[in-house]
Amino acid sequence: MSYSLAFTIHILGAVIWVGGMFFAHMILRPSAIEKLDPPQRLPLWLAVFGRFFFWVWISVIAILITGYWMIFDVFGGLAGLKATYIHIMHGIGLIMAAIYAYIYFVLFQKFKTAVNAGNFPQGGAIINKIRNMVTTNLVLGLITIIVASGGKYINL
Q1: What does the pLDDT read at residue 154?
Q2: Where are the domains of the chain?
Q3: Nearest to 88 by CA among 134, 140, 144, 141
Q4: CA gap 52, 58 in Å, rounded
Q5: What is residue 73's predicted lDDT score, i.e. its pLDDT?
C-alpha cells in the first residue's frame, strides 16, 4: 500500500466517523426532538444507529489499519516518530475506539433491547448515556482533527 493511499483512506475514515457524529448530534438530534415524540424518536435512533454504526466499524478498522501501517512502514515504528502530534493522534484515536466499542457492545445492545420491547423510558435513559459518550468522542475527534491539521505547523 502506498503512503498516499493509506493517508487518503485514513482521512476518509475520520471524516465519515467525526462528520457523522457532528451531523447526528448537532442536526439530527435537535430536529428529531423538535418534530417527534419519544415513542417515534427512539425507533428512529435505533434505525439511524444501525446504519451509522456499520460505517463507523468500517471507519475505525480503516483508521487503525492505515494508521499503524503508516507508523510502522513509513515512520519506522512508534519509537521512530519524532512528531509529538502523531503520538497525540494515536492516543486519542485509541481512546475514541474504546469509547465507540463500549457504545456499540454495551449501550447500543441495551438500547436495542429496550426499544424493541417498547420500554421507552429505559430506552430514553440509555440514549442519554449514548449521547454523552458520543459528545465525548465528537470533542476528541475534533481535537484530533485540529492536532492532525495543525500539529506539524505549531511544532507539536
Answers
A1: 85
A2: 3-150
A3: 144
A4: 10
A5: 93
Is the pLDDT score of 142 beyond 80?
yes
Distance CA 52, CA 45 (A): 10
**C-alpha separations of 130 from 41, 47, 60, 139 in Å:** 14, 15, 18, 14
- Cα angle value 95/68/103 (rounded, 5°): 30
Cα 64 versus chain centre, distance: 12
Q: Do 59 and 100 touch, CB atoms closer than 8 A?
A: no
What is the C-alpha separation between 41 and 156, in angstroms, rounded?
43
Residue 131 has pLDDT above 90, yes or no: yes
Exposed, middle or buried by CB within 10 Å (0-12, 13-18, 19+), for 58?
A: middle
- pTM for the whole thing? 0.95
